[in-house]
Each structure stands twice: as C-alpha cells, then as structure tokens.
Design brief:
The protein is mainly alpha-helical. The chain folds into five domains: 58 residues, no CATH class; 96 residues, Tyrosine recombinase, N-terminal domain (DNA polymerase, domain 1); 110 residues, Orthogonal Bundle (Arc Repressor Mutant, subunit A), CATH 1.10.10; 167 residues, Intergrase catalytic core (hpI Integrase, Chain A, Orthogonal Bundle); 54 residues, no CATH class. Helix 5 crosses helix 7 and helix 11 crosses helix 15. The protein is globular. The chain starts with 5 loop residues before the first strand and ends with a helix.
C-alpha cells in the first residue's frame, strides 16, 4: 500500500517555524516532492501543516526547483521532431540557451529575463562578449607529419587530434580550426585533413556539419565560459591563430527560432504542472526583416548545367536539370528511386526524402508529409530513360539486373546508396563557382516558382508542384520573384501606353503572353537540354519543350 504524504514542524533559531511535507518523488524528474513554508508562530505552523498535507494528498504541485536545463532535457525526450529539426534544436540549446539560462530555476524565469537575453544576442551572438575588446583564444593542437612514419598522413593527423581530445587539450564544445587554416599552418594536404576529420566523426569524437567548423563532441559546460578570454600557460596566439573579437549580432530569425524552442518547452512545463504560467508571452521579440527571394535567371541555370558537363559530372547535370524542371527539394531528388518514375506516362512520384544526420541515414516521407505526382516533359523523360538504360547495360555486362528500388542519383552501380544531400549542396556550389554564378540547390526551387508564375501558371498548381500547402501563401512569400517577368511586362506596357498618348499618338496593344522576349529568355535552357540529350534523336521533344516554355 502506497504511503501518503507526511510532514513535520521545525523551530528555527530565529524563533519562527518551518513546515515541511514530503510527498514522494516526481516520476519525470526523480526529484523529491516537498512542500515547505515558514511562519512566525507554532499555531500558524500547525494550520499551514494541515493545508499542505491536503495539497499534497490532492496532487497539487509544490514549488519546484527544476531548472531550465532539466526542462529542456525532458522536453527534447518527448518532443516529436524530424531528425534534422532535432539536430538544429540541439545545437541552439547546447551553444546558446544552456550557457545563458541552463542553471536558472523555472519559477524565476520571467519576461524581463528573456528580453535581456534576446537583447544581448542582438548585440553579439557570443555570450562571453560584454562589449569590451578582448582576444578570442583558440585551442589548436600541433599536427606534425613524419615522412618516415609508415602511417599515411591522414592517420597521423587523426592520431594527433585524438590524443589532444583524450588529454583534455580539446574539451567538449571546442571548435577546431577549419581545414584550410590547418592545411596552411601545418603544411598538410587538405584532403588528408578532411579524411582525418571524417574518421574522428565516425568514431563520435567530433561533430562535423556542412559549412561550419568541426566541434568536439560531448556536453559543454552549462555556464558561460571565459575560455576565449584567457590563454593557457605556454599558449602561442600567433600559432593558434587567435584574433581580436568582433561582435557578430545574431539575426532576428535565429532569435525567433530560439524563442520557439523555449515556447515549446515552457508550454510542456505548464502542461506538466511544473509552473503555473509561461513567461514566453511576456517576452518581446526582435523584429524580423523579411527576406526578398532571389531567383536565378535561365541563363545562370544553363551555365551551371554546362559547367557540370564540362567537369564530367553528367549525373549531376541531370540532377540540376531535374531540380529546375520539377522544383523538388534536394532530399526528395536524392531519395528518388527508379520505381518512382513512370517514363511511359511521363510522371514522377515524389513520396520520400533522404536524410543523413548525425550518422543516421534514412529514407523518410517528405517535409510536408504529403506525396505528389509531377508531370515531366518528353525531353526529361528521354534523358532519364537514357540514364536508366546506361545503368542496365553496365550491369548486364556482368549478368546482373538493375534492382527496381535502385536510387537514381547514386555512385553505386546497383543503386543501393543514394547521394548525401550535403554532398550535393557542396558539389553544386563548387560547380556554380566554376561557372562564376551564385546558385545553390534551393535557388532552383525559387527559379521554378518564379518562372511558372511569370509564365501564367496559376498559383494553386505552382504551389502543388513545389509541395507547398496553405493555398500558395508560402510560395508567394518565400519563393516568388519580387520583380517578376509579368511585372516587367506590365511596366513596359504602361510606358508604351503613356508615351504615345503624351505626344498625341495612339496607344499600342499589349504584347501577348508568348512574346518573343519570353522565348528568348528561355533559350539558354533549351541549349542546356540539347547538351543533355541527343538533339537529332529527340528534336520532337525539344519542339514540345519550346512550346511549353512559351
């Protein structure tokens, strides 16, 4: 039989009385549930003891000492998040929220505290910054490569970093110098250093993310560290690459993302009856500046596709073409299998997305959890048919059939492992750099949206092709070109209309949708298509595509 709550009185040296009631342990946090109150007289203490015993028997929550760090840990265990979203949240919690607020009790966190926290982030994203100049000291172990050593260079570099982590020279949360900095300082090839970091990441010693410095794995201290401010004994700032601190304000968009994490956690705390009310509603958020979507031109897209072909990356050229004509997300194209393509009907079934996060690789449903069927033109269907035939002929030479569930974009002849989306992002940026064009995979979705809307395709079908819900609001807000081709034609028409009337002439007629100007605008993509397919075999498909673009 479970024991009920029990309590006692304790007289304090000051002459007052403390009332203490014990009601077991909290099943979520494992903390002891205690109801405590201090009063002046013994008579008041006995009255309060009876009230607290009734409160404990009814299951009412006591004043809790749970901290923000404990709340976030419990919240992340039960929150339903996608793997990529969870990784992003973990990064914000580890780098920003815990060092500033982790040790604070929930009941002491109020709106003014959050206002101060957000204001500091608006000034500088580095929480160690107080506004005064200081030097950011970096921890950088020496990596010496012995040419007489039988081990390869990457093996020696990995051993040096592994030893530094084991000896405590590099602690959890410390950032490693970039591969470019290490290669220039230590005289080691960048490829060897990249291999070494990949090996350490597979071992779980460091965390590597695309576009960011590698970080030593583990839980960093939950208090704001001053390690950037002071150097250790024997520290060589010149060798380690220490630099004066420069304030880098955190964007309003990122602060709002942190606010949403705290909002979800505090909503759970109210639901769990850890606190009576959430402080989130009384916090003031910085104003988010709307970002104007940027759409590449057909000439820029065609130049990047041509650069991929010139670099002998034909499959990447097909990837870029398919991204431009379908508007699919990068993970959706990486997760595309031949079983999802009906070349006879000219339809692609987008139902899955491929992700590689934190060592986990999975084929899951799409971002919006909805599948869609996309029509493709004859040129694209022919392009994919030739690609599949090439893969089948390669396997037929060794008497092996192409599996039905083989991935389209893969380096494996059997199509068992697709491309990593992060690798695609890196490779597209590299190819775009060769073409002297600023373009990434997501910009191709902007291109699809803006060109479809400019071509007179209605918003509903454009949003459906991109996989957007909400009637196309997301398409207009984030993907449509702010100065569309339709708007440019409108400006030209108004100018043509006004000028003759001002001089006493007659107003000209507006140009039709399929004007020669629009056809010329799409001409670079037609040239790119002719590169990807055999023009004399598929001239009928090019004519069809030209008619569609008009």
């Amino acid at each position: 039989m479970a024991r009920g709550p029990s309590g006692h009185l304790e007289q304090l040296p000051s002459g007052g009385f403390r009332v203490d009631v014990y009601a077991g342990t909290d099943p979520l946090t494992g903390r002891r549930l205690r109801y405590r109150r201090t009063v002046k007289t013994e008579q008041q203490a006995r009255i309060v003891l009876g009230k607290l015993l009734e409160q404990a028997a009814a299951g009412a929550p006591p004043d809790s000492g749970v901290t923000v760090a404990e709340l976030l840990a419990r919240y992340m265990e039960v929150a339903e998040l996608e793997p990529s979203t969870r990784e992003t949240y973990d990064g914000y919690i580890r780098r920003t929220i815990l060092p500033a607020l982790g040790s604070m009790p929930l009941r002491k966190l109020r709106g003014p505290v959050l206002d101060t926290f957000y204001a500091r982030l608006c000034r500088c994203a580095d929480l160690t910054c107080t506004g005064r100049p200081f030097t950011e000291h970096r921890k950088s172990p020496a990596i010496s490569i012995d040419p007489d050593d039988g081990r390869p260079a990457w093996h020696q570099a990995a051993d040096a970093l592994r030893s530094a982590i084991a000896a405590g020279l590099l602690s959890a949360g410390d950032q490693l110098p970039s591969v470019r900095e290490l290669a220039a300082r230590e005289g080691v090839r960048a490829a060897a250093l990249q291999h070494a970091l990949a090996v350490l990441a597979d071992e779980g010693l460091i965390t590597v993310r695309q576009g960011r410095r590698a970080v030593v794995s583990g839980q960093p201290p939950r208090t704001i560290s001053q390690r950037k401010r002071r150097g250790e004994t024997g520290h060589d700032c010149e060798r380690a690459g220490c630099l004066p601190h420069q304030c880098r304000p955190m964007s309003a968009r990122t602060i709002r993302q942190i606010h949403s994490i705290l909002a979800g956690a505090f909503t759970a705390a109210v639901r769990w009856e850890w606190i009576d009310r959430s402080p989130i509603g009384s916090a003031r958020l910085p104003k988010a500046r709307p970002r104007s979507p940027a759409s590449p031109t057909p000439t820029a897209v065609a130049a990047v596709i041509a650069a991929a072909r010139e670099a002998q990356l034909d499959l990447l050229a097909v990837y870029l073409w398919l991204a431009a004509v379908t508007g699919a997300r990068r993970g959706e194209l990486c997760g595309l299998q031949w079983a999802d393509i009906d070349l006879d009907a000219g339809v692609i079934h987008i139902a899955h997305s491929y992700q590689a996060r934190g060592g986990q690789k999975l084929r899951k449903d799409t971002k919006t959890h909805q599948d869609r069927h996309l029509a493709i033109d004859e040129v694209t269907a022919t392009m994919l048919a030739e690609r599949r035939q090439r893969a089948q002929e390669m396997l037929a030479s060794v008497t092996v059939e192409l599996p039905v569930a083989a991935y389209v974009f893969t380096d494996d002849p059997l199509g068992r492992a697709p491309w990593n989306p992060d690798w695609v992002t890196h490779k597209v940026a590299e190819v775009a750099g060769r073409a002297d064009v600023s373009l990434n995979v997501k910009a191709l979705r902007h291109y699809t949206a803006s060109q479809l809307l400019a071509g007179g395709i209605d918003l509903r079908n454009t949003a459906a092709r991109l996989g957007h819900g909400g009637g196309g609001a997301t398409t207009l807000r984030h993907y449509a070109d702010p100065v569309s081709e339709v708007d440019r034609r409108a400006a030209a028409y108004l100018a043509q209309l006004t000028a003759p009337m001002a001089s006493g002439g007659t107003a000209p007629q507006p140009s039709p949708k399929g004007s020669p100007e629009r056809a010329d605008n799409q001409q670079p993509l037609l040239i790119a298509a002719s590169w990807l397919v055999n023009a004399h075999r598929h001239s009928r498909g090019l004519v069809c595509l030209r008619q569609n673009l008009r």
